Every structure is written in C-alpha cells, then in structure tokens.
Amino acid sequence: MVSVCCYFQVHQPHRLRRYSVFDIGRSRDYFDHRKNAEIIAKVARKCYLPANAVLLELLRQHPEFKVTFSISGVALEQMRDHAPEVLRSFQDLVATGRVELLAETYYHSLAFLYDREEFREQVAKHVALVQSLFGVTPTAFRNTELIYNNELAHHVEKLGFKTVLAEGWDQVLGWRSPNFVYKSKGTGALKLLLKNYRLSDDLAFRFSNRGWSEWPLTADKYGQWIANVNGNGQVVNLFMDYETFGEHQWEDTGIFEFLRHFPAEVLKHPDNDFVTVSEAAERYSAADEVDVHHYISWADVERDLSAWLGNGMQQGAIQELYRIGKAVKGMDDPDLLEAWRRLTTSDHFYYMCTKWFNDGDVHKYFSPYESPYDAYISYMNALNDLALRAKVRGASGFLSAKPSVHVAGTVLA
Amino acid sequence: MLGWEFPPYFAGGVGTVCHELTRGLARNGVHVTYIMPHGPDDAASKHVRLLVADRAMQRLGVTTLRVKSLLTPYTSANEYEARYAQALRLNPMDAHPSTIYGKDLLEEMYRFAAAVLEIARDEEFDIIHAHDWTTIPAALALKRASGKPLVVHVHITEFDKTGGEHADPEVYRIERDGFQAADRVIAISEMVQRRLVRQYGVDPARIRVVYNTVEYGEGPSGPRERMTDGERVVLFLGRVTLQKGPDYFIEAAAKVAHVVPNARFIIAGTGDMLPRIVERAVALGIGHRVTFTGFVGREDGDRLYRMADVFVMPSVSEPFGLVPLEAMKQGTPVIVSRQSGVSEVLRNALKVDFWDVDELANKIIAALTYNDLHAALREHGEGEIRNATWDIPATQCVRVYREALGT
Predict the structure, then answer these.
(1) Which residue in chain A has the smallest CA separation from B381?
(2) Is A27 on the interface with B (CB under 8 A)?
(3) What ipTM, to 2 d.p.?
(4) How remote is the C-alpha of A381 from its chain's centroid?
(5) What's the helix, strand, coil split of chain B in %, to 5?
(6) Which domain holds residue B256?
(7) Checking CA distances to A378, which of A221, A275, B48, B384 falls within 20 to 30 Å?
(8) Residue B342, domain member (yes or no)
(9) Strand blocks (E) in A217-308
(10) Within this chain, do residues B29 and B175 fall inside the same structural domain, yes or no?
(11) What's the CA gap between A42 and A245, in Å, rounded?
(12) Within this chain, do residues B240 and B381 fall inside the same structural domain, yes or no?
C-alpha cells in the first residue's frame, strides 16, 4: 500500500517599496502596497482560484482524495485584505474536512535561527489566525522553507506539535528511502515526514521542461511511478509550492489537466490512497531515527541556508534586524512591531542572494528588484528608520559606516 | 583598419579601444595595418603596422605643419570651430592660418581620405575596418577603389554627442552614407544598435553587437589608497561635458554631503561645462568638498580609482562607457546610468537613471555607508571582470569579418 501525501505551500511576502535613505526619519511607509495587491491578484487569477476550483471538484469526485496546505500568515492577511474570494475558496476546501492546514511562522521568517522567543510568538500568532479564519487547530508544523535540524524538531515537539516536515535529502537519509515515516533524534513521539524530492520536483521543476527525457509527463505515467513505490515504502510525500499550478508551470503546459487526472490515476491502483500530513504520521510508525545536525532546507541544489544567508549583505542585514528586536518590542508600539516583523520574512533576504545573479543567470532570479544590491539598499534603509523609531543608537556598526554617519540628524553608527 | 587615434597619440576612449582590439586581433591571427591621420614619424606598435597619414600627405606634395591636433572623434564640427578659434588666441605663434592643416574638421577628413588611398595602393588587405564617422569618407573611398568589404565600427553617433538636438546635418549625412554602405556594422551596444536602426535606417540584419571590455590581466595596478584624513571619496572621471552628466553628479553630491559629512567629491577631467560645474558646487555650498583635478592621464586615473570608495558614471547618453570597467578592475564599486551601453552587460554595479538625482544620491550614500554592500560590490565586481579579455570582442570581430567576406 502506498499513501500519497500532498502538501502545498502558499506564501506571499509584503514586498518593500524603493525606500530611499532620504525617507529615513520622514516616512514610515516601507511596503509597496499597490504592487503587493497586484501580485496577490495576479497569482490568485493564475493559480489560487483555478487550482482551488480543481481541488474542490476533485474532493467531490473522489472521497479518498486529501491534501494539506501551509499558508503563511502574511499570505492569509493579504488575501483577506486584497483577494477575499481567494480566502473563501481556501475556507471551502478546509470545510470539506479532508484538507489539513499546517502551522508555520506567521511571517514566513527565519526567526528560529536568530530569536527563539520571537519564533514561538510567530508560531502562536499563525495558529491563532488559522483558528480564527478556518476554525481548525494545526497539529503538524513546517518551518520556513523546510529549514530543519534536530534542535528544531525538539522545539517543535515542546510546542505541542505531533508532526514536523523536512527535505528528504540524501545526505541525511543515506541509503534510506524518504517513503517512510521517521522520527527525529532526541524527540519523543514527534513524527518526521520527508519530502520525496525526485517525484516532487518532477512536477514542480521539470513538468514543462521539453529537454527532460520524461517530457511530457502525464498523470498516467506519474501514477505508475507512485505505484512502483509499492513494496519499497509506505508514504510518498509530494511537497511543493502551490504556485507550481499555474504560476511556475503555466496553464498552457497542461498542469491543470494533469492535476485533474492525478487522483484517479493514483487510485487506479487499488493499494493506493491519499493521506493528509497528520494522517500519515498517525497511520505509520517511525521506521527509523534521523539525525540532522546542520540545518537543511528544500532550497536549491545545496539544500542549505545559502539562499538567505549566503553572503555578507544577507548576514549583516539579518543580524541587524534581530539585534534591534528587543528594542522594538520594548517600545510597546504595535505598528512598529508589525513593521519589524514584516521585515523578518525570509523573502527579503532571498532577494539579496548573489548565488545565481553572479552566474549571469538573471532570468531565474525571481525578485521584484533589479539586483540583490537594490534589495539590500531598500531593506537597510527601512531597517535604519525602524532603528530610529526604536531609539536604537550608538550601538556599534549598525550602519557600518566609518566613522559615524548622520542620518536625519541622528547618529546611528 | 582606419582610425583617428592610437595610444599614446590619442585623446579619448576610442583610441584605447582600437589599441586593445588590434592586440586581441593580433593574438587571434589577424594582421592589422592601422592608418591614422597624424602622429610622430616614428610612431610604432608591436602588434600592428602603424601608418601615419601625415607622411603620405607629404609625399602627395601637401605641406603640413605638425601641430597638436584639435580634433577628437567626439568633437562636433561646431565645437571644433570654437576650439580652433581658441587655439588661435592661445598660440598665435603656431597658428598662422595658412599653415594649420584642416581648417575645419570636414576638410581634414577628406584630406585623410586622399592620404589613405595613396597609402593603401601599396598595401595588401582583405577587409576594411573603419572606426566612427571621421574615417568614413576614407573608408568609402577605399572600398570603391579596392572593392574590398567594409566593416564600420560604431562607437558613438552624432545623436549621442548632441543629445539628438542640433545634430550637424553634414556629419549625419556622412554617418548615414557609411553605415548604409558598409557590409557589416558593428555596434558597441544594443543602445547603439537601436539608434542605427531608428535614426539611420540601417538594416538590423547587417548589425552585430560587439561589447567593449577591459583587459583584466594582473588586476589592480597598485594597492588601494586612502585619503589621509579619513575622507570617503566619490569619483567622477571623464570629460566634463553635457553627455557625461557632471551636472547630475554635482546635484547628487550636494545631497550626499548633507548625510555623509566626510564625503569628498573628485571631478577628474575637463570640458566645456567645467566652469558651470565649479560655479554650481559653490552655489550648492559644497565648494570646499569638491576637488577638480583637470585632465588626468592613465596612471593618475588608475590611482584615483583606487582612492575612490565609489565611482560614478552618470552619463546622459553613453554608447558604451569603458571607465566603470577600469574602475572595477582597480577594485572600486561603480554606479552607472541605465542610459549607457555598459549597463546592458554589467551585473555587479548599482544602476540609476541619470535624471534621478535622489536615487543617485541614495545609492552613493548606500555604497559609502553599508560596508557589507561595499564589500559585496567589490568582490562580485572583481569576479565579474576577472576573466575579461579583448580576445572575446576580437574573436567576435573575426566572425563579423567572415560574414562580410562571405567565408
């Protein structure tokens, strides 16, 4: 028997506007509201609405069909504010009782790496939002970009979650298959589900690649590959960005047709069924313990943190961000705290990545900015304004100028 | 190859490009004979046969007095007249009108054409490669006389020099005739390519883009230099003319000066806008923060790059713009205007629209202030040009030759 476990990630950041050094001390308006609303509307049109419609239809057709979503808090609030019909369509899916929602950091942040208290607060805030919008309480957790190690598993268990997700990366699995349920080293009953990245990436990355030997990928063929796991595994974890459907793989690639036929092709094999993340964890006992010391993620070929923390700009910016966190919270100013938290979203650091940019592979570089340098400049300028508001001053190296630099009459160096 | 200048007898960037390009061609098996209008009798170069038209003109019985030329390929005919008049005022002894050759630029070009025909009679060659409009009359005459294919290499057009206004109709006519008669036209950027198509009606199928580059070689030609009093240096290096945008630089400098009290602005170069820029600096209250160096040679230029914390090229219209690459070679982060050909290829540079003074100031301040940004631009900028060599444009030119020759 093979259980197929589909988990789709939904996330949209609050992108910054071009925030100039001359805005520091003058404007508290850091975010590009119009662009963010436009992007939500565009992705809703291309992906969320049509894909949700397909899924709802599939849930009606196939009583065995189930899916799991994780929707970041910042994505949910942008839907609520700019695309309420999208939020309703997700609520309709969850109301079927066969769609599970995961918990994550509200701001899709890297807080676990820098500020454990903030991490817990963001998780609690996300759980509260999911409860209020959907009336369900998540029991499984996925960290931003599937960033994971033993320590994360330990913390997630302490927060009361029963299941955690991670990348099924060869370097941590060794000879073992991702197609079983595992447990993390150093935890009790917490279950660990590992992404089958080959089968997941066949859809997420290779589906429309005409140079791929398996192109075109039909639901029939894909269903057969999944059936082949029979005898070698129990659960096939297909984890991917939801934007795969219609946004990364455009409609004209046939991705929606694929999705429409996918459940029937899986269920054609009588031994197969669908499970949500928590069902998989409940149904199957842990086959083995996985020991992960260094952080892994689901990003890039490296599966590490280098997409967000690979260069000096990224590291410098995130260190400054978390360094002023205490002062921000100490101001007891909800607007200030909200702005600071929106700056914890991982995308801001991703935009500063120079890995692909320097290879000249600019087209794959998915960013609202012309370059990682532009991303960094707007971010640091906005952070400097936050620092002013939080009355953080004199702390060494904030603006990293030598010697001191005066901004809007205040010494920040 | 027909050119107007060649190091060390040159006035600007096109001479440098010709020098480096011919070296790259020589390394790739092309024998280049380079003819230029004037230079010393013993003008010589290791990798090309350098011929100076002066001597041919003498053989033709034209008596010339060798004077420092007033001509550069950048000069419009109008500006030439002004400089000519100025020269007369400044050097009355040298400037007896009947003995200065080329009373105006156009006349000198046609004399050059006559000389080239005379010289080329004894030369064997397969293809004519001409640089910019000043060599076009000579190139067309040579093409007619020899029947050899012609490649015109466009570094700048009359439209770039004049900003599209008051373009000299005679210069435009010469350019258009040359571009349209050429078997292939090499544009040094897509920006130039667009101009050739739109303003000169050149068939896009006959245009090839070959970007300029730098010879990275051993990298920086010396250690980084620091201002002794800890000042942060923002550098402008180039002709102080409308095209190069020094006025936008000085406006941005004033905004930067308010935020970064230890910023020093260096304007290296001369040009007709210099007095205006000096006056503007004073009016903006930053006269004491701006240093004007006048014209700087290559070595001093490299030193200035190494002294600068950030180099700015705010050109209004720059067909390519080599200087940012020179600055990056010396390890200096650069800001370039999007209205430049080099911005089409540069990745690890900050880019601005030349008119957006606030954004230019924002980026200068960021480069001076955020050390992680400065370090990233330096590191990745150097990485980007570490493998730069003129072999690349040279082999692209060879491909264009083959197309023109039909081989």
Answers:
(1) A358
(2) no
(3) 0.90
(4) 26
(5) 50, 15, 40
(6) 232-385
(7) B384
(8) yes
(9) 235-241, 245-246, 249-250, 272-275, 289-290
(10) yes
(11) 13
(12) yes
Domains of chain A: 2-290 (3.20.110.20), 311-411 (no CATH)
- Comparing alpha-carbon positions, the chain A residue that sits nearest to B385 is A358
Cross-chain residue pair B373–A401, CB shorter than 8 Å: no
From A32, A134, A21, A29, select the one nearest A80 (Cα to Cα).
Answer: A134
Distance (Å) from the alpha carbon of A19 to chain B's nearest alpha carbon: 9
Residue of A373, A378, A383 to mutate, interface with B, max B Cβ within 10 Å:
A373
> B188 and B323: one domain?
no
Q: Is A145 a catalytic residue?
A: yes
Q: What is the pTM of this model?
A: 0.89
Give helix A49-61 / helix A255-267 axis angle, nearest 10°. 20
Q: Let me know how long chain B is.
A: 407
Task: Evaluate whether residue B219 is within a structural domain.
Answer: no
Classify residue B238 as left (phi > 0), alpha (psi -120 to 50) or beta.
left
Smallest Cα distance from A26 to chain B, Å: 14
- The band of B8, judged by pLDDT with boundaries at 50, 70 and 90, is confident
Asked whether the beta carbons of residue A362 and residue B347 sit closer than 8 angstroms, the reply is yes
Catalytic residue among A118, A145, A157, A320: A145
The distance from CA B307 to its chain's CA centroid, rounded to whole angstroms, is 23
Choose, out of A311, A361, A377, A402, the residue to mutate when testing the contact with B (most B CBs < 10 Å): A377
Top residue of B347, B356, B364 to mutate, by most chain A CBs within 10 Å, is: B347
CATH of the domain at B51: 3.40.50.2000
pLDDT in tens, A169-210: 999 999 999 999 999 999 999 999 999 999 999 999 999 999
The structural domain count of chain B equals 2
User: Does the beta carbon of A356 lie under 8 angstroms from any beta carbon of chain B?
Assistant: no
Tokens standing for residue A246: 């219609």
What are B385's strand-pairing partners?
none
Q: Cα–Cα distance between B86 and B80 in angstroms, integer?
A: 10
Residues of B in contact with A353 (CB under 8 A): none
Structure tokens at A85: 């019909």
- CA–CA min distance A399, chain B (Å): 6
Residue B89 structure tokens:
């005022």
Measured between CA atoms, the residue of chain B closest to residue A23 is B362
Same domain, B57 and B200: yes
CA distance A355 to chain B (A): 10
Residues of chain A contacting B259 with CB distance shorter than 8 Å: 21, 405-407
How many whole angstroms separate alpha carbon A354 and alpha carbon A347? 14
Tokens of residue A233, six digits: 């595994």
User: In what helix (H) or strand (E) does residue A67 lie, and over which residues does it extend?
Assistant: strand A67-71
Spell out which residues of chain B touch residue A311, defining contact as CB-CB under 8 Å.
376
Q: Do A405 and B259 touch (CB under 8 A)?
A: yes
Q: What gap in Å lies between CA B141 and CA B30, rounded to an integer?
A: 23
Comparison of pLDDT for A31 and B14, the residue scoring more? A31
What is the nearest CA distance from B346 to chain A, expressed in angstroms? 10
Token readout for B65 is 């007095």
Q: Which residue of A has its CA nearest to B363?
A: A377
Residues B397 and B299 in one domain: no
Separation of alpha carbons A326 and A340, rounded Å: 11
Cβ atoms < 10 Å from Cβ of B239: 20
Are A300 and A167 spatial neighbours (Cβ–Cβ below 8 Å)?
Answer: no
Instruction: List the single range of B102-111, B145-154, B233-242, B390-399 with lowest mean pLDDT.
Output: B102-111
CA-based torsion, A115, A116, A121, A127: positive or negative: positive
Which tokens belong to B325? 């690459």
Whether A402 has its CB under 8 Å from any CB of chain B: the answer is yes
